[in-house]
Amino acid sequence: MQQEALIMAAGLGTRMLPLTEKTAKPLIPVCGTTMLETVIQGLLKNNVSRIFIVVGYMKEQFDFLAKKYPNIVIVENKEYLQKNNISSVMAAANLIGENDCFICEADLFIGDDSIFFGISESCYFGKFVEGYSEDWVFETKKNRIVEIRKKGTNLYNMVGVSFWRKTDLCILLNAVRETYQKAGHENLFWDEVVNANLDKLYLSVKPVFKEQIVEIDTVAELEEFVKNKGNEHASKRVYSKPHRT
């Protein structure tokens, strides 16, 4: 079965001001390549047949991608200013669902293309964090995700990439459509819809470690990454085994 991908790139990127005053956050270059293109290149190397990029803020800046890369479709999220990122999944809901699909954030630096290889079961990618974390975390039982929430201790943390088998993706998309009919949906992250439907989904955690997927949210984090790790990421692709529970 073919694989597709949905990349969510509609946000304002306010935590990376002032850079995002003139440039959409996913298009900020890191070590010579835009963050978004590291995601695209990794997916294409995994033979993903089509990539839908959902845009909003500075949408015109993304147009070149459809010319530069094969099988990219730009999708506009017209609600990105009024609603949370549930609106980006909704914007593409009628375009995906026929194939297995990656769902990715756009503001990531992919340091290891192999993370996209050989994924066959629905899963969230996660990095294990020892101690307390205020980020999004996964509570698991026998490697099945039983809760997605913010804050936790000694748990896998969300890193912005997930993979969906067609059957699970259809359950998710139907749940998003149903949630869209309810008051308050505009405030939801799409992952909260997943959490509300975990009884219908079997999602595992795909362990990765921090060098494989780097989340860069602020100018300070960008500068630190480029200074301390950028050259290493560009010249070396040597990684240790991820932590497993």
Q: What would you say about this model in short?
A:
This protein is of the alpha/beta class and about 240 residues long. About 25% of the residues lie in helices and about 30% in strands.
Topology (SSEs and partners):
Blueprint: E1 3-9, E2 29-30, E3 33-34, H1 35-45, E4 50-55, H2 63-68, E5 72-76, H3 86-92, E6 100-105, E7 108-110, E8 123-141, E9 144-164, H4 166-179, H5 190-196, E10 204-208, E11 213-215, H6 219-235
Parallel strand pairs: 1-4, 1-6, 4-5, 8-10
Antiparallel strand pairs: 2-3, 6-9, 7-11, 8-9
Order of helices and strands: EEEHEHEHEEEEHHEEH
Q: What would the principal axes of the Cα set say about the shape? A: globular
Determine the number of helices (DSSP H or I, runs of at least 4 residues).
Answer: 6
Largest sheet: 7 strands, mixed
CATH homologous superfamily of the domain at 3-118 and 159-186 and 213-235 - what is it? Spore Coat Polysaccharide Biosynthesis Protein SpsA, Chain A
Biggest sheet: strand arrangement:
5-4-1-6-9-8-10
The assigned CATH architecture of the domain at 3-118 and 159-186 and 213-235 is Alpha-Beta Complex
**Number of DSSP strand runs:** 11
Mean pLDDT: 92
Class per helix and strand makeup: alpha/beta
End-to-end gap:
30 Å
Could you name the CATH topology of the domain at 3-118 and 159-186 and 213-235? Answer: Spore Coat Polysaccharide Biosynthesis Protein SpsA, Chain A
Radius of gyration: 17 Å
Low-confidence stretches: 236-240
